[in-house]
Amino acid sequence: MGTGDCICISMTGGAPWGFRLQGGKEQKLPLQVAKIRNQSKASGSGLCEGDEVVSINGNSCADLTYPEVIKLMESITDSLQMLIKRRVDAPFLFLEDQSHQLLLHLLGYTSLPIVTLTNQQMG
Question: Which range is the signal sequence, renumbered to this chain (predicted)?
Fold first, then answer.
């Protein structure tokens, strides 16, 4: 996707999350959000079609195959946190809480504005 901003997306309540992924190591493509269902947890979280998934619940996705990603997603029971890369046209960090601030700081992403949303605010 080129250079862009990293955004932290958090969802709670368990599956279904309301999005579909594509890509993976075996396809030699970055893992990306292919589709988001209307009125889903994903649509209310700030996740966008075309977002590149950097990590899922702290697990890097760079070397995961699509089946490994599906297995990881199926193991998540309540809380989903995704670090995603988006082009510069969306320079906000959406957080349900402040849990990813330290991770982003350690990764060198210290200049992003932060918008904190709760599930109630997201609709």
Answer: none
